[in-house]
Design brief:
InterPro entries: Cupin_2, OryJ/VirC-like, RmlC-like_jellyroll, RmlC_Cupin_sf. The protein is an all-beta fold and 165 residues long. The protein has strands at 9-16, 22-30, 40-47, 72-79, 92-100, 102-107, 112-116, 120-124, 128-131, 138-146, 151-152, 155-156.
């Protein structure tokens, strides 16, 4: 992946026909959103509320959700080689699965944890960042779900996002 365009992701979305049978509603290749310095985000799907409404006809993979919304977000995040992340907090419960390469999970307590292909992180509204310190691309599958604000010692923590998605 180093000197070539990021691969597209095939996204298959199901729905129902008039007879209430399951059908393939969409089957298409999705490209990453270009970014000057990465990471690159590929929007796969989102829902603007919980529980999600599965009856709509809008392609919610095209929704501009920002980093978080009031429902769910599923995306692929590609990190170029030797790219530092930015520490941030979203008010979400995140399931992060490393599909390719490895990243370093950095937390605001100073800890750094290497996460490799096939491993996953459950991210619970903490200040965190992702660094790719290798010479290869890293690819993460990220599922974000709206959460209640964390409360520590009676203090309600808020989102802290020093960048735009």
């Amino acid at each position: 992946m180093t000197n070539q365009p990021l691969p597209q992701v095939r996204r298959i979305v199901t729905g129902h026909n008039a007879q209430a049978q399951a059908t393939v509603w969409k089957d298409s290749l999705i490209s990453a959103a270009s970014a000057e310095h990465g990471p690159f985000l590929t929007r796969l799907w989102s829902s603007p509320q919980l529980p999600p409404d599965v009856n709509g006809t809008e392609d919610l993979g095209l929704a501009n959700t920002g980093l978080a919304n009031q429902g769910t977000i599923c995306r692929i995040v590609d990190f170029p080689p030797k790219s530092p992340g930015m520490v941030h907090r979203s008010i979400t419960l995140d399931y992060i699965f490393v599909l390719e390469g490895e990243v370093v999970l950095t937390l605001d307590d100073g800890s750094r944890t290497v996460v490799r292909k096939g491993e996953m992180v459950v991210q619970r509204g903490t200040m965190h960042g992702w660094d790719n310190e290798t010479e290869s691309w890293a690819r993460l599958l990220c599922v974000l779900i709206k959460a209640e604000n964390p409360v520590v010692e009676g203090k309600r923590l808020e989102a802290e996002v020093p960048f735009q998605v």
